[in-house]
Each structure stands twice: as C-alpha cells, then as structure tokens.
Design brief:
heterodimer; A: 334 residues; alpha/beta; six-stranded mixed sheet; 8 helices; 31% helix; 25% strand; B: 211 residues; mainly alpha; two-stranded antiparallel ribbon; 2 strands
C-alpha cells in the first residue's frame, strides 16, 4: 500500500502537528497531548469536548471551531484517546460550567471517556456525555445502545456546539444533544476497504464486484453483501431502510448529509444525492438543508453513507446558527 | 523458581513487552478477521512505550511500582479498549497490595485476581463474551486451584488454561467491541484480546523457566 507517511508510529503526531502549524491562527495545542482547543471559543459557557480515533479526518479535529466543539482529544489510528488526554483536554477548556463529552459509541471510547469522567470528578469538573449511535445497520432498534456512531457525529457536534454557545446549562445542553442524537440516523455502504497507515493489509476484503450494505467505518460487517449495482438501486435500498427506521412522514422537516468514506468521488456522491432527491420529493419531505461531502472517513475506504436529521423548531434553531472551522462552515456567509 | 526480586520482575515485564511486540502482525491478522485490525498495532505500540519506561526508570523501589509503571504507560499511550483493559491488567492488580520486594506465586496470583476483578467491573464482560476475560479468568482460577505454588508450575498451569480459553472464544458470539455486530458470523474465529492474554502468560513462563 502506497501511503505518504514517515514512521508508522509517528503518524498521528505528525498529522496533528501539520494541521496545527497550518491553522495555528485558530488552534492551540493542549500541553504535550494529542489534543487542541479553539482559541476563539466563547467563554463562560459549558464546554464541548469531542474525541475519537484518528484516521477519520476531517472528523474529529476538523469540527473544533466557532460554534462547534471547543476542543478535541485525539486517539491513535482508529483507537479512542486515552483517559489522560481526555482529562487534560477537559481541564484546558472547562470554565466551571461543566464539560459535555461527545463521542461515538464504541467499546474503547466508552471505556476511556468513562475513566476520564472519573478523573474529572477529582478535579471538580462537572461532566456529562452523549454517545453517538446513528448507524442503524449496526444493531436492531431494540438494541439501540449497541449501535455505532458514524457520520451523524457531524450534526450532533453542530447542534451541541450551538447549544453550548447559547449559554445553556449543562443539563440543558445534554437534553438538547440527546434529543438531536435520537433524531439522527445513518446508513452506509462500502465498496472498498480502508487501511491502517503502516499496515499493508486492508482493513477488510471485498471482491472487485462486491459491496456491503451497512458495513462499519472500520470494516465491521454490515447487513448484506451483494454485487455492485447502479446508483439508483443502491440508494433505493438505503433510503428504504432509513425511511423505515425513522418512520419518515410527509412534511417531516429534515437535513441530509451524503458523506463519502474516503475515496469515493464527488461525482459519485452527487449522483447519490440526485437519486436521493427523487425519494425526498416523492415522499414530500421538507428539506431544510443538505450537504454532500466527505466528513467521516476511513482513509481510502470506498463507499458513502446517508444521514438524515429530523428537525423540530428547537433543533432547527441550533442547527441554523453560524459556525466555522477550516473544514465545516454553516450560516450567513458560508 | 520460588520468588523473583524487583530486578527480575522488571526483566519479566520487559520480556512480556517483547513478546507482544514480536506478535504484532499475528495479532493484527487475528483481529482483522472479526475486529477492526488495530489490536496488534495498539498492543505493540503500548508495550514499546512501556518497555522504554521500564528500562529508563529502573531500578524500581518495589515490584508494585514496576507493575504500575507498565500499566500507566499502556493506559496513557494506547487508548482504545485495549489501553484501559490491558493497562488495568498491570496497573490495578497491585493497587491495594502491600509493598512487594519479592514476587512469589501467591502474590502474583493475587495481583492477577485483583486485575481480573477490576477489568470485569470496568468493562462488564464475563466468560463467554468473546473477550480477554475468556483467557484471563480461567488462567487466574487455574493458578488459584494449583497446589504447587512454585512460579513455574503456576504459570505453566495458567498457560494451559489461557490457551483453552482462547480456543473457547472460537465458539462464542461477541458481546463487546466491534465483532459484536457480526453475531454468529464471529463464530469460528478466536478473540484477539484473549490471544494477547495467552501470549503474556506464555512469555511469563518462558522467562521464569529460563531463570
């Protein structure tokens, strides 16, 4: 595998350093940790700390910024950050109003963030957490808490960041964030594997003409492996699944994200949205906002996901506020 | 082999680090089958850092500090589920124990029992969930029920139990981690975490037998 890296063990450190060198006007590194904060963050509010494994860029670090997360704790490749890094990150941005941790629902993240919350308690930092579990292919509805977090992170960081900026107390930020979390669903499809930088073997194997519905971001098996089909058939199937999952009804107001997993081109992603838009019109959904980009990736993994956020007036209010990071911007001037 | 002094225990821990570092690609391969393939990289990365710390900070005032150093390095460098779980294996085992300057079979058994309890409490896994517990719990139980408290005998028994535990994980559906979503498709494959536990026990007995 050709990969533009130096030593495998330095990958995360060097990637972070590059990002922080380039965007140093926005960010400041947190003391000796693989973590950084947004220098222009609003003060005197609940702090939003996000985190997760590296290798999914622009998630998670690319979502630290104005109206977004205040800081990020970065783990090794596809591995959660450690408790010490998370603690230092929380300490660096806590304003005495508490810290909301937002991360994907994976065994490693849960263990490390739980431990970090215990450590925060020793420093009298109030904490709460929301685990993102938007991937409706990763477990049935009855086992919602077994589901993984994927591209839905984007919407949740946006809304939680806005709720923090609005000056809500920790318990209110938590309520809004949980409501947003429960209004987001994602379904993905993989066409080719990603890789761990420095590891020659791909993260999973798919035949040239095969795809897998519902495959996880790290190659976790999905719900069905089948042969490659035209875009309309792929989207029909995926939209059908997510519509049923969310019980979408006429005139429901939604935001949509077609997210590329790494190597899938904008040409393909736009084609996906073209197909998706037919369903949206047919079902008379009110599209409040839509986006086609690669936010939640797994190196050169091929495929895409469709995320739908169902909005009510409260969520829309937070969704609509302006925000900015080098990779994500919403609002008047974006 | 009745006991090990602080220096020998430090060497033992470094030997364990090397065994995991050497198993990087093997663990990656096992984890790639049903996990996300990061176990080998994560474990060997943590062990490399632990080894550096053990070498740099020796001699230690007691066995406890050597174990703690290893556990903390893993916990604070690895991340992932393995960082907490395997960090705890070394860190929490000695947490409430009196200062140890000579490590004997009974004390090592106690350390591993403490660690097992902490890991179960933290991660919530039990036997049959296709995790490292499937190797660690039988190994600890085998040590506890072994009449001969010689380090070599104890660790030899633990190895057999851990290996059986690894074999058993092939029969299980995973209840934790990324293999969970595979359901019955995970059957037939061994758990990478349990494999690491077995590697750690084999390394310990190898070191002790070579003394």
């Amino acid at each position: 595998m050709k990969k533009i890296i130096n030593k495998e063990s330095d990958v995360v450190e060097e990637m972070l350093s590059g990002y922080l060198e380039a965007y140093g006007r926005y960010y400041e590194r947190i003391s000796l940790q693989n973590a950084f904060l947004f220098k222009g963050r609003r003060r005197g509010k609940v702090s939003l700390v996000i985190g997760g494994g590296s290798g999914h860029e622009p998630l998670f670090g690319g979502f630290v910024g104005e109206g977004l997360a205040d800081a990020v704790a970065c783990g090794n490749i596809f591995a959660s950050p450690n408790p010490q890094t998370i603690l230092e990150t929380a300490k660096a941005v806590d304003e005495g109003k508490g810290v909301l941790f937002l991360y994907g629902n994976y065994a490693g993240d849960n263990l490390n963030f739980d431990m970090a919350e215990e450590l925060c308690e020793m420093y009298d930092i109030k904490t709460a957490h929301v685990r993102v579990w938007d991937d409706c292919a990763s477990a049935p509805k009855e086992r919602m808490q077994d589901r993984r977090g994927i591209a839905g992170d984007v919407y949740l960081i946006k809304i939680a960041g806005a709720a923090c900026d609005a000056g809500l107390e920790l318990n209110e930020v938590l309520r809004v964030a949980e409501k947003a979390r429960d209004s987001i669903n994602t379904i993905g499809l993989a066409t080719s594997p990603g890789s761990i930088p420095g590891v020659d073997k791909p993260t999973f194997e798919l035949e040239e003409d095969e795809i897998e519905f519902g495959m996880g971001l790290h190659g976790e098996p999905g719900i069905e492996r089948t042969t490659m089909k035209p875009a309309n058939e792929l989207v029909d199937r995926m939209y059908g699944l997510i519509k049923k999952e969310m019980d979408l009804q006429e005139s429901d107001e939604v935001a949509l994200l077609v997210n590329g997993l790494g190597s899938t081109t904008l040409l393909e992603l736009n084609t996906v949205y073209f197909e998706l838009s037919k369903h949206l019109r047919k079902d008379k959904l009110k599209v409040h906002d839509a986006e086609i980009k690669s936010y939640c990736t797994c190196q050169e993994m091929g495929g895409f996901s469709i995320t739908i956020l169902r909005l009510d007036d409260e969520l829309k209010k937070y969704y609509d506020t302006a925000c900015f990071s080098p990779y994500y911007a919403r609002g008047e001037i974006s | 082999m009745k006991t090990m002094n602080i220096e020998q225990t430090t060497d033992l821990l470094i030997y364990v680090c090397d065994a995991i570092i050497d198993s990087k690609s093997y663990l990656t391969e096992i984890d790639s089958k049903i996990g996300d393939g990061d176990h080998g990289v994560g474990m060997s990365g943590g062990m490399e850092k632990a080894k550096v710390a053990l070498q740099a900070r020796r001699p230690f005032p007691d066995v406890n500090t050597a174990f703690k150093t290893m556990g903390l390095m893993m916990l604070n460098t690895m991340g992932g589920a393995s960082g907490v779980i395997f960090g705890s294996l070394f860190l929490s085992g000695v947490k409430n124990m009196d200062t140890i300057t000579e490590l004997d079979g009974e004390k090592l058994t106690q350390i591993l029992r403490n660690a097992l309890e902490e890991i179960k409490a933290r991660g919530g896994a039990n036997i049959g969930d296709k995790t490292m517990i499937d190797a660690l719990e039988p190994a600890v139980e085998a040590m506890e029920s072994c009449d001969n408290k010689d380090l070599s005998s104890l660790l030899g028994t633990a190895c057999i139990a851990a290996d059986e535990g690894v074999e058993n994980t092939k029969n299980y559906i995973a209840r934790f981690g990324r293999a969970k979503s595979l359901m019955e498709r995970a059957v037939g494959y061994q758990d990478a975490g349990a494999t690491s536990v077995a590697i750690i026990f084999h390394a310990m007995v190898e070191y002790v037998d070579a003394l």
